[in-house]
Automatic annotation (TrEMBL):
Residues in Tyr recombinase domain copies: 110-323
PROSITE patterns reported in the protein's UniProt record: CB, TYR_RECOMBINASE
Classification via CDD domains: INT_IntI_C
NCBIfam families hit by this protein: integrase_gron (TIGR02249)
InterPro entries recorded: CB, DNA_brk_join_enz, Integrase-like_cat_sf, Integrase_catalytic, Integrase_integron-type, Integrase_recombinase_N, Integrase_SAM-like_N, Tyrosine_recombinase_XerCD
Keywords recorded for this protein, A-Z: DNA integration, DNA recombination, DNA-binding
Lineage: Bacteria, Pseudomonadati, Thermodesulfobacteriota, Candidatus Desulfofervidia, Candidatus Desulfofervidales
The protein's name: Integron integrase
Family that this chain belongs to: Belongs to the 'phage' integrase family.
GO biological process: DNA integration; DNA recombination
Pfam families: Phage_int_SAM_4, Phage_integrase
Domain of life of the source: Bacteria
Domain Core-binding (CB): 9-92
GO terms assigned for molecular function: DNA binding
Amino acid sequence: MAKHHSHQQTKSRLLDQVHNVLRLKHYSYRTEEAYVQWIKRFIVFNGKRHPEEMGEKEVSQFLTWLATKKKVAASTQNQALCALLFLYKKVLKKDFGWLDDVERAKKPSRLPVVFTREEIRAILARLDGSKWIMANLLYGSGLRLMECLRLRVKDIEFDYSQIIVRDAKGSKDRVTILPEKLKEPLKRHLEKVKVLHEQDLKEGFGRVYLPFALARKYPNAEKEWGWQYVFPSKKRSIDPRSGIERRHHVDASVLQRAIKYAIREAKIAKPGNCHTFRHSFAAHLLENGYDIRTVQELLGHKDVKTTMIYTHVIKKGGRGVQSPLDVLL
């Protein structure tokens, strides 16, 4: 029994270490949760042995099992690999070579699903309030779902018609367009959010989560209006990391459910979701004749090859090239 108890202690000590290093390196809470779950699964898969006693062979076997027996998607297997590499490199400080023996889950080379303009109109017509504004931002500004939810008041620059997407994928900031059509609805929405924030302040709350060391650097910033979320949650909640009660941004599932429902109501047969709006933003810009580099910058793609995939789904055939015969006629 004592042995079992000490094993549990070692495991929880290791997971505490993992949590601490993830926080130290400013990983998001979602990533932290996912990594810890993968590390737990890895330990259980290997008969609860301590990762210190294991290495490349066990990691390879676990990842191969995920791909062959569990039939996980390539992105899921990749997340598990990232979690285990993080564990060994950053927490246990063991660096082994690249995992050559892993059977990699095949990434299907599917073209992105894109809504037509009519389908976009039909979906947006079935949304209202802040959900309507968020969906419009996904399509009108090409935002990823979490980029939209994490927007702060100061990131929306009405005068310059632009949105600053901070700490996006790859920890980079980028600038994208703020559609003219959204300016007035957004301003009206922010007036309501400001009332909510002022109410929170009166009740002794109103502090928002600040990224990295900003909370220490600017001790009053967390109460400032500019740092508040554009799409706050209806209820305040306890922050699982700090134990502080505050108002976080709205949960991703709120918009995901609303969009799923709107797609069904609009009788659209395509397998669309929140991310389909971003795909549609890219494809429609290319259809409108914008050059690929501009679209790449607005989407924040590191490599133009990623943006190139949209040239295969736009309505112009033959990679968007107009035949010289059509120009002649």
